[in-house]
Write a structure and sequence with these properties.
InterPro entries: AAA+_ATPase, ABC_transporter-like_ATP-bd, P-loop_NTPase. This is ABC transporter ATP-binding protein. It holds the Pfam family ABC_tran. Keywords: ATP-binding, Nucleotide-binding, Transport. Belongs to the ABC transporter superfamily. The protein has 323 residues and is α/β, with parallel strands linked by helices. It has two domains: 201 residues, Rossmann fold (3-Layer(aba) Sandwich), CATH 3.40.50.300; 102 residues, no CATH class. It is built from nine helices and 13 strands. A six-stranded mixed beta sheet has the order 5-6-7-3-8-9, sandwiched between helices. A four-stranded antiparallel beta sheet has the order 11-12-10-13. A three-stranded antiparallel beta sheet has the order 2-1-4, covered by helices on one side. Strand 1 and strand 2 form a beta hairpin. Helix 4 packs antiparallel against helix 5. The radius of gyration is 23 Å and the shape is globular. The protein starts with 9 loop residues before the first strand and ends with a helix.
Amino acid sequence: MPHTDSTPVLRADGLTKRYGRRPALTDCHLDIPRGRVIGLVGPNGAGKSTLLQLACGLITPTSGTLEVLGSRPATNATQLARVAFVAQDTPVYAALTVADHLRMGARLNPSWDAGLATRRIGQIGLDPRQKAGRLSGGQRAQLALTLAVAKRPELLIFDEPAAALDPLARDGFLHNLMAFVAELGASALLSSHLLADVERVCDHLIVLAGSRVQVAGDVRDLLASHHRLVAPGGGPDRLPAGVEVDRLPAGIEVDRLPAGIEVIRVEQTDRGHSLVVRSDGPRPAGPWSVESLRLEELVLSYLSRAADVSAAGSRTMAGEAAR
């Protein structure tokens, strides 16, 4: 049965994690409702694994707060039982059989569902007598997924669990993941570099880059509020504040953009120039065509903006050091 508690599955307020002087996460704010399948995307070093480890209670914040299912992560055995974590290498014990793993799961988890575990092992065709070290990558991932869901958690957390799988094994893993989420009525948080996988299974999105949350929200709302404004041909030489003049989108002037428009990215294509913008109001009307974005385009726009900001900061620091 779905969980009806209205407490957010994840709430962060000023969440910051540093390792020495290096920031892994900086001033993150999140408020994610229950019942979502959350895609966490960003480049290497963005802070994705750090956020997942904080959510599991494996590490603690430097500053700020984080609540998972209404409580601080890993505060007690009850809280630990509500969250299941599958790491990137889908770890299992090579010397133990599949059946040994199920027995271990039953001993360690008070809400263990032996019937669910046995049924799913049969459905994916695993021999209970086979040692985990002799399973294929896809089979190990399915075993790790079974162990995670048989504890009947309210939140499933996955750190790139399908990254090393071939396309067929990845398809099977994602299919079973969605089946488990539906059966348990649980929320899921999935970190992935594969935007096609995120687009397939996730209905909520967090984009991390440069240790900061760039954008977060339900996928449907994000796609509805982001647009591409296209004006082909030559045009004026003015841009919204913060956009470089030498990357002028033709035909779009700052004083002709409606109020409440946030410029995310300036693009130049074979059709001319364009802006990727965010508008929480009506579709921006003006002397341009308005196009919808695919999820991949939205994500890449935010990652590109974060990379530009980082590069500009590096140039500024280099210039100050040279003085």
